Amino acid sequence: MKERRRRLWPLVQEVATRYGLDPALVMAVVETESRFHPLALSPKGAVGLMQIRPATARHLGLDKPFDPLKNLEAGVKYLAWLKERFGGDIRLALAAYNAGPGRVLAAGGIPPIPQTQRYVVRVLKRTEYYRWRFQALARR
């Protein structure tokens, strides 16, 4: 996992920056979704690094969901759109990424779904870890 994470970091920096997202946040999402495994496949059919569901892949025009760059690009684009859709509130954007925007809208916030609530907390904690980690590396 460390090697995959190390190889992925420059790509995440590039794509996240292009879409105005914190690269540490994107690393945290990728870790939480797929553990950095580009061929990850969930029981619900979500695929790749960012675990994009088939309907979302079609909507985003993702034709090669197992291609790490294309999957990352689509997932980051979608997360950036969710962040904008929810007024810049990254917690709501993450909840929508996990449970779907309709559920977040219906709940008027993070839905009362334990998995989604844990997901938001985990991604935010891992985001802080990656911020610290990459700041420490930059100081070397």
CATH class label: Mainly Alpha
Number of domains: 1
Sequence of secondary-structure elements:
HHHHHHH
Q: Give the helix level as a range of percent.
A: 55-70%
Low-confidence stretches: none
Q: Which fold name is given in CATH as the topology?
A: Lysozyme
The assigned structural class equals mainly alpha
Head-to-tail CA distance between termini: 22 Å
Average pLDDT score: 94
Assign an overall shape: globular
CATH architecture: Orthogonal Bundle
The number of helical segments is 7
Computed over alpha carbons, the radius of gyration is: 14 Å
Number of DSSP strand runs: 0
**Approximately how much beta-strand content do the residues carry?**
under 5%
What does the main sheet amount to? none
Structure description:
The chain is an all-alpha fold and 140 residues long. It has one domain (2-139): Lysozyme (Orthogonal Bundle), CATH 1.10.530. The protein is 69% helix and 0% strand. The chain has 7 helices and no strands. Helix 1 (2-18) crosses helix 4 (68-85), helix 2 (23-34) packs across helix 7 (114-139) and helix 5 (90-99) packs across helix 7 (114-139). The longest helix is centred in the C-terminal third of the chain and has 26 residues, at 114-139. The radius of gyration is 14 Å and the shape is globular. It starts with a helix and ends with a helix.
